[in-house]
Amino acid sequence: MSYQKRTALALASALAGTVVLMAAPAAHATVVDVDYRCKTPIGDKGAVSPIDIKSVRSGGGYRLTMSFQKGVSSSPVELGKGAMNPSAVIKVSGADQGEVQVSGPPNAAAIPANSPIKIGDLSGTYTPRKSGKVDFTAGVLTIKALGTTTTCTPSNSPGPSLRLDVTAAGNTGSTGNTGNTPDNGGQLPKTGPLDSATALGMLGGTVLLTGAAGALWLTRRGQGAVGR
């Protein structure tokens, strides 16, 4: 085989490896309208809030942030600063099954009477037990305030707000509740879903550089052979 053909094959292999690695699916996130029906101490209430779920890779798991773009429910009396404590469940489906408990800090400012209760970002940690594509969907929201509890349940069977391609540590293949926990009192930066695309891109670049270096070596070797 001539050195020109060997050079072409080396470059083609490097480029093919890069394309495959860069094409690896990342994560898919979308804002989903959730129609909450709330059982409150003074009767039933309801509101639709767009829900966004984002992820940040953290060790062997993911830190999830659930964001509410509109307020839900209301209170007949003013809720003073720090009087309201929210928490929620994020349903896990797909390759892995279970729930992630998320929570957030109390309200930073007073909430006027008879006005929508704006829920701050809720966060928690998800550790996959099975590998594959996993969906995260808004579940039940719980609001505790002034010694009362309001439970808000999605009534419109919302679709997932986030899909991740996850890898379980050790690939144990165990099932059941994911056993994930909330990050109490902490808020996460509003960054998009992270995944292995960046690392794969860097690896793909390394493959490309390695292939190019090999092609250059073959070219020079071929030219030296011709010179002799």
Give a structural overview.
The radius of gyration is 25 Å and the shape is elongated. Strands 1, 2, 3, 4, 6, 7, 9, 10, 11, 12 and 13 form an 11-stranded antiparallel beta sheet that branches. The protein is α+β, with helices and mostly antiparallel strands. The protein contains 2 helices and 13 strands; from the N terminus they run αβββββββββββββα. It has helices at 3-22, 197-227; strands spanning 27-29, 32-40, 43-58, 61-68, 72-74, 84-94, 98-103, 116-117, 122-126, 132-145, 148-154, 162-166, 181-182. The model is unreliable at 14-25, 172-177 and 184-228 (pLDDT under 50).
Class per helix and strand makeup = alpha+beta
Main sheet makeup: 11 strands, antiparallel
Overall mean pLDDT:
75
The low-confidence runs, each spanning 5 or more residues with pLDDT under 50, are 14-25, 172-177, 184-228
The portion of residues assigned to helices is: 10-25%
**How many β-strands, per DSSP?**
13
List the helices and strands in order: HEEEEEEEEEEEEEH
> What proportion of the residues form beta strands (DSSP E)?
35-45%
Write the layout of secondary structure elements.
Blueprint: H1 3-22, E1 27-29, E2 32-40, E3 43-58, E4 61-68, E5 72-74, E6 84-94, E7 98-103, E8 116-117, E9 122-126, E10 132-145, E11 148-154, E12 162-166, E13 181-182, H2 197-227
Antiparallel strand pairs: 1-12, 2-3, 2-11, 3-4, 4-9, 5-8, 6-7, 6-10, 9-13, 10-11, 10-12
